[in-house]
Amino acid sequence: MAKIVVDVMLKPEILDPQGKAVAAALPRLGFSFATDVRQGKRFEITIDGEPTAAQLAEVETAAEKLLSNPVIENFTVRVEK
Amino acid sequence: MKIGVVTFPGTLDDRDAARAVRYAGGEAVSLWHDDADLKGVDAVILPGGFSYGDYLRCGAISRFSPVMEPLIAAAQGGMPLLGICNGFQVLAEAHLLPGALTRNHELHFLCRDQKLTIEKTDTAWTSSFSKGQEILIPLKNGEGAYMCDDQTLAMLEGEGRIIARYVGENPNGSRNLIAGITNERGNIVGLMPHPEHAIDSLTGPSADGIGFFTSVLKAMVK
């Protein structure tokens, strides 16, 4: 069994009001480390056995078609050990 | 004239959309998301609501519903198709219209009466209006900020494909105050505010919204 992780983030030029709200909440709790926060989505996909190149290519296609909206988001695909 | 109104799980405004069709003098036909059957309708409305609970992204799951396959083919062939609010989000996810609808810039869910100007009147859904006409209809959404890249924005402006803009302060952060757009052919329109809630001054802020529904009936007679 392996886990494939797809991270989806808004493109840098797209305003992220949720990330901004989180960034504004941090100082209220006394945390002063953040100059910026961006919020995204993480998908954990479980498959049987080790992923093949063909399966990873399929995950890429699924990430492009369904998991992300290429108009506003970027994604990355990786296999988690 | 038969106008289909699609119901997805989580759709809210299908009844008001059907009522608006009847007010305008058309016959409203209920279409079900899980049936790949347009029941011989002449035009279709994707109404507002929270289809699939807005899971993943607004409209992202509805966009792959069985009804969408014949609907996309028909709309690409010229059948009039109007997406209101969540329906606009579905049209954007289906790439029938460019761009995307994202979280309102102040994060608030807005529910208020909103002034718009109608900028394009040669579409299937806006011919009953006059160019520059101001209308007042409800706006209610959490993810209504219209976003697209600079190139797409220049294309929409250059080709005059913005059908309506917000008047006054930008309510949600939409680029260039965009409230609604159309495709090149003018048969597909996406609109964030809700004309179907403003067809009678007894139940809405005005009766301005009826124009979208009378327009399509006129377009089909032609």
TrEMBL record, chain A:
This is Unannotated protein. InterPro entries: PurS, PurS-like_sf. GO terms for molecular function: ATP binding; ligase activity. It comes from freshwater metagenome. It holds the Pfam family PurS. One of its GO terms (biological process) is purine nucleotide biosynthetic process. HAMAP family: PurS (MF_01926). Keywords: ATP-binding, Cytoplasm, Ligase, Nucleotide-binding, Purine biosynthesis. PANTHER family: PHOSPHORIBOSYLFORMYLGLYCINAMIDINE SYNTHASE SUBUNIT PURS.
From TrEMBL, chain B:
Pfam families: GATase_5. GO terms for biological process: 'de novo' IMP biosynthetic process. One of its GO terms (molecular function) is ATP binding. InterPro entries: Class_I_gatase-like (IPR029062), PRibForGlyAmidine_synth_PurQ (IPR010075). The keyword Cytoplasm applies. Keywords: ATP-binding, Cytoplasm, Glutamine amidotransferase, Hydrolase, Ligase, Nucleotide-binding, Purine biosynthesis. This is Unannotated protein. It comes from freshwater metagenome.
